[in-house]
Amino acid sequence: MQKISVSATRQQLLDHGLSIAKEKGLRGLTVRGLCQSAGVNTGSFVYHFGNREQFTAQLLEHWYAPLFLQVQLEFDQDIAPIIRLKAMLRQLVGYVSTHGELISQMLLDASAGEIAVLDFMKSMEPRHPRLILQCIAEAQKSKALVRADPKHQMMFIMSTLAVPVLMQHSLGGKEILPDLIRDMLATYAINPQHIEQRLQWALRGLSPLEKIHEP
Predict the structure, then answer these.
(1) Distance between CA atoms of 62 and 56, rounded to whole angstroms?
(2) What is the rounded CA–CA span in Å between residue 108 and residue 22?
(3) Using CA atoms, how far apart are residues 202 and 82, in angstroms rounded to an integer?
(4) Is the dihedral of CA 166, 167, 168, 174 positive or negative?
(5) Helix residue ranges, H only, the chain
(6) Cα–Cα distance between 160 and 202 in angstroms, integer?
(7) Which backbone phi and psi does 147 adopt, to 5 degrees?
(8) Taking a C-beta distance cutoff of 8 angstroms, is the pair 201, 160 a contact?
């Protein structure tokens, strides 16, 4: 029998944990069920993570790290703020689109009082939201965006880009929505071309008036 390395065992637990979280949410994850799914004994789980709470916290950080890295790399580029902002938003909304089912489950986890998710959400403020807000402020300073509260502008942008994506992942296939809304979500919410169109519309709508009327 081939021996599985320590790092491979840890990664195996994380991978299976993400699969369970996507399907059932973290509220549906148990140590015994995870170990059975991953084919790992509970002793190995305890060795790598200690307990369920530490595992779920590390699982969320493991899932989030690639997104934060990409947003940080875009933010650090030495180019115009509005171009950096577009790139950051594309990274963020692309991640939301790819992981929409998991994010929808996380929102349900938070509503159910899942501690790891609540703590993770509280930890978001100084990370990618701060970078986006800073980039919005820099774009305003360069006169690429109209002057306004950056938090209000970020809320507007994300409601345009990310909220339809999450609605499609969480509600799009359910009969609770009218046919018209379900058709709109299925057609426009997660299609990359339509996401890009909404991004262009949103940033054009936030441009100073003199820029809007330019040919």
Answers:
(1) 10
(2) 11
(3) 12
(4) positive
(5) 6-24, 31-38, 42-49, 52-75, 81-98, 100-111, 115-122, 128-141, 150-171, 179-184, 192-205, 209-212
(6) 7
(7) -70, 125
(8) yes
Looking up tokens 């071309």 gives 193
pLDDT tens digit sequence for 9-56:
999 999 999 999 999 999 999 999 999 999 999 999 999 999 999 999
- Domain stops at, among 50, 69, 84: 50
pTM for the complete prediction? 0.90
Are 46 and 64 in the same domain?
no
Residues of the domain holding 35: 1-50
Cα separation, 186 vs 57, whole angstroms: 33
The domain that holds 92 is classified in CATH as 1.10.357.10
Q: Token digits for 32?
A: 């015994």
The H or E element spanning position 142 is none
Q: Other C-beta atoms within 10 Å of 131: how many?
A: 20
